[in-house]
Amino acid sequence: MQIRTRLTLQFLLIGGIIMIIASAAIYFSSANFRQEDFYNRLRNKARSTARLLLDADNIDPNRVSELEKDNPVNLYNEKIIIINFLDDIIYSSDKEKEIKYSTTILENARLLQRVTYKQGSYQVIGTLYSAKFDRFVVIAAATDIAGHAFLKKLRIILIVVCIISIFIFSVAGWLYSGRALKPVSDMIRNVEEISITSLNLRVPVLHENDELGKLARTFNNMLERLEASFGTQKVFISNASHELRTPLTSINGQLEVLMLKERSSEEYQEALASVLDDIKSLIDLSNRLLLIARTSTQNPLKQERKIRIDEILWQAQEEAKKFNDNYKISISLDPSLTDSDQMLVDGDESLLKVAVSNLIDNACKYSSDNSVNIRILQSGKWVEVHFEDSGIGIPEVDLEKVFEPFYRSSNALTYRGSGIGLQLVNQIIKSHNGLIKLTSQVGVGTEVVIMLPVAT
User: For 349-360, what is each residue's pLDDT tens digit?
Assistant: First the structure.
């Protein structure tokens, strides 16, 4: 069921209930008023007849009957009975004796001065009347033809009004819900126009402070993130394709040249060595790309494994020296680190080893003496690892961009590399809820600080 239909039905249900309750209240209050008013008229008629008969001297009951017969204010089917304290009837206009009463009714009338009850179509009231020398019970009965006709007409009017009101509520609810949901319909129409080729489009924000305005702003923020993500992905794919194509093109070219003619074994070995270098670069680039994809889809902290960061550094040092004998890697612990638990972090051992290995390789590669100084210390709830080198440094204009994929500093283009090492390190550290800071000065050196939460 559509929201508009549901809102219309809810609007109709609420309006219908209100109309039914209001109509019932009007009808029953009118019925109570009609009944009470008719009893008051009966009481007034009873007392006026009793006054005419009992307060005057030498009044003939037959004469009273004749006078009452022609009274224009008589009620329909009016019956009046006057009873003395001995329960004897001294006057009655009820010739057919239709009105019934009991001793209890007479006693209640004398005690309470008023008693009412219904007998068939008659409404009956018994009231106490005090004359000069005695007290009498006057019973008056009549049929309220006009009152019942009024209630019948009122009932019909209220039913018709309810039916018309329900129809009006239906139309009004449909129009109101349509108008209320129009911004949502417009938003849906605008969203349907947005595709992967038009992520620059945005949903109009008509009213900033209402819920729909907040929804539109939230959706626009999501579109901005998607646009930035797709843009980064596009650049990443373009750069990755270029970086992958370069060694493949080099391998293809060398092999084609090699096959043009017969060559000596030395030339074959030299060409194969060059091809092997390109293949190694291709493998290293592929591994880095796979690690980037892995860190972007996996949360290492879910493994809940505690790792000593100093052991990671010692392993990375050993592997770096195994492949590069000229690398000089110095690792020192701050004197404040007196307990091995102070160097425990949660995360993925292999990913953290990749991160520190990249930082060690960069520091040694860009230093004139191929050296790096590593310091481990604790600062509050963080384990800090400082990588300091005396290399070429990074220009200030490039500091904010070095963590972007495939971006290389202007003074590092002559060095061999793919430009995704720091981006991979940044992604790994962030996936471990850590921080990375970089400060550098051209010609002086660079310091990279990674901060990881201490394992609890």
Answer: 888 888 888 889
Q: Which amino acid is at 43?
A: R
What is the CATH number that goes with domain 302-453? Answer: 3.30.565.10
Q: What is the pLDDT of residue 138?
A: 92
Fold of 3-151: Beta-Lactamase (3.30.450)
Mean pLDDT, rounded, of the chain:
82
CATH of 211-279, one of 1.10.3470, 1.10.8, 1.10.287, 1.10.10: 1.10.287
The pTM for the full model equals 0.51
Residue 315 CB-density burial (10 A; 0-12 exposed, 13-18 middle, 19+ buried): middle
Q: How high is the pLDDT of residue 115?
A: 93
Predicted confidence (pLDDT) at residue 298 exceeds the cutoff of 60:
no
